[in-house]
Write a structure and sequence with these properties.
alpha+beta, Uridine Diphospho-n-acetylenolpyruvylglucosamine Reductase, domain 3, Vanillyl-alcohol Oxidase, Chain A, domain 3, 4-stranded mixed beta sheet, glycoprotein, oxidoreductase, cytokinin dehydrogenase activity, FAD binding
Length: 525
């Protein structure tokens, strides 16, 4: 009775707010196994995200128990005369309100299953089937019971499968295995018409490619079949420093060119970061370095006041531990880093993958996690990365930052051009990620206003210099910007896919790509 009353209240709230002509009893008869809530605490939780920059309160929150729950809700929105919007929310790690909606329902995918179904693993076929709201850390825990693990990762594992696959899912393994969207065999997707469809390369292939990197515009991922490999036991984690940007990028590009080589002849992970602030090199991201022997700019002759750190790993099993040292020595001999700047540690594979969560716990203990995060992620063409370094790292940033700045190259041929992800038109491009936190500590350079303005300066620099950078986890506010992001060819394809799979523009309106169109005879954008 209490559940039915809660659902009725949520439906009434929808009617009052959006005024759609729909019989409330029809929603009660949808047969939802999960919970449709209008509880203020649930609405508040769905109104914010990790970015802390936007706020939008939904009318209700659905905690689905099954894929069918999601399909029934979306079908109700699609069939209703006036309609309402539906946005899937995972772990709430978006930056600019992309998973939010007003005058609609948020589907809380993580933690929503009534009877939690563990990830199903096929040892023989080397894949895992998991709920779209499952966290990657939980998928890892399940697959490790069979000595297996997904091939490609994000740096932070407390994200949902549906969330990362709707963007791309990238980390230092992407040069070799491709992003997470390149390691998916099959999906179950609820389209904007309320259809629950299984899709893959062979079945509903256009939907499959559209949803991967599709920013939630074409469907809600309720199940993903992820490719697995034998899980390593340990990781040799190495950091080496550079004072010359050209040398740094040449070495990074050389390492990712080895992607086709046998495992013994390449590293398994290639990332890097920029150090524009001497304090940053020994902070939480770089706690890798010994506190008793801190790294100093003055000792390393930083070019333009900037240092670059190459971060690489070699995975191994205890059975081949005796050969790992020699393999690393051979690889490092090809690199031109600052002599005596090599820092190495050895740790279990899981500890390496979960490294950022440990940093999170430290920041939470200091009250520095739940603060605004005006992050900016860019894909920069290889041919323009030197100009970007000069104009941004050695220019706009002014030797001051308030968080890590990642930089590492990826191979474009590791992404399927049929997916919805947009990258520069070059064989190699760089991820540059400004992962900064806004703080109220009296330092103007760490305020939200200052960092947001600096992000604008970086984007303006790219536009003025015609760098042709593309935003990853993109955020735009008008049609012209989205068109420029996709380019005419891919924008046309994106529009066509939207018309096919979400013609009423019900899904993921927080992305601000398409305005809701609840009159079937009216098209927008």
């Amino acid at each position: 009775m209490a559940t039915k009353l809660l659902v009725t209240l949520a439906i009434c709230r929808l009617i009052v707010t959006v005024g759609f002509t729909f019989n409330p009893n029809d929603l009660l008869r949808l047969g939802l196994d999960g919970k449709l809530s209008a509880d203020p605490a649930d609405l508040e939780a769905a109104s914010v995200d990790f970015g802390g920059l936007y706020r939008a309160e939904p009318v209700a929150v659905l905690y689905p128990a099954t894929s069918e729950d999601v399909a029934r809700l979306v079908k109700a929105a699609y069939d209703s005369a006036r309609g309402f919007t539906v946005s899937a929310r995972g772990h709430g790690h978006s930056i600019n309100g992309q998973a939010m909606t007003t005058n609609g329902v948020v589907v809380q995918m993580s933690g929503g299953l009534k009877n939690k179904v563990l990830t199903k693993v096929s040892e023989k076929l080397m894949y895992a089937d998991a709920w779209g709201g499952e966290l990657w850390i939980d998928v890892l825990t399940s697959t490790l019971e069979y000595g297996l693990a997904p091939k490609s990762w994000t740096d932070y594992l407390y994200l949902t499968l549906g969330g990362t696959l709707s963007n791309a899912g990238i980390s230092g393994q992407a040069f070799n295995h491709g992003p997470q969207i390149s390691n998916v065999h099959e999906l179950d997707v609820v389209t904007g018409k309320g259809e629950l469809l299984t899709c893959s390369e062979k079945e509903n292939s256009e939907l499959f490619q559209a949803v991967l990197g599709g920013l939630g515009q074409f469907g809600i991922i309720t199940r993903a079949r992820i490719a697995l490999e034998q899980a390593p036991q340990r990781v040799r984690w190495i950091r080496i420093l550079y004072s010359n940007f050209s040398t740094f990028t040449q070495d990074q590009e050389y390492l990712i060119s080895l992607h086709g080589k046998p495992a013994s002849q390449k590293f398994d992970y290639v990332e890097g970061f920029v150090i524009v602030d001497e304090g940053l090199i020994n902070n939480w991201r770089s706690s890798f370095f010994s506190p008793s022997n801190p790294v100093k700019f003055s000792d390393l002759k930083a070019e333009g006041g900037v240092l670059y750190c190459l971060e690489i790993t070699k995975n191994y099993h205890l059975s081949n531990a005796d050969t790992i040292d020699q393999e690393i020595v051979i690889l490092l001999k090809k690199l031109n880093y600052i002599p005596a700047s090599e820092f190495t540690t050895d740790l279990p594979y899981v500890d390496f993958l979960d490294r950022v969560h440990k940093a999170e716990l430290k920041l939470r203990s200091k009250g520095l996690w739940e603060v605004p995060h005006p992050w900016l992620n860019l894909f920069v063409p290889k041919s323009r990365i030197a100009e970007f370094d000069k104009g941004v790292f050695k220019g706009i940033l002014g030797n001051k930052t308030s968080g890590p700045i990642l930089i590492y190259p990826m191979n474009k041929n590791k992404l399927d051009e049929r997916s919805s992800v947009v990258t520069p038109e070059e064989d190699v491009f760089y991820l540059v990620a400004f992962l900064r936190s806004a703080l109220k500590n009296g330092d103007e350079t760490q305020t939200l206003e200052y960092l947001s303005n600096q992000n604008y300066e970086i984007l303006k620099f790219c536009e003025d210099e015609k760098i042709n950078a593309k935003q990853y986890l993109p955020h735009y506010t008008n049609q012209r910007e989205w068109r420029d992001h996709f380019g005419e060819k891919y924008w046309t394809r994106f529009q066509q896919r939207k018309l096919e799979y979400d013609p009423r523009h019900i899904l993921a309106t927080g992305q601000r790509i398409f305005m809701p169109s609840f009159n079937p005879n009216t098209a927008t954008w």
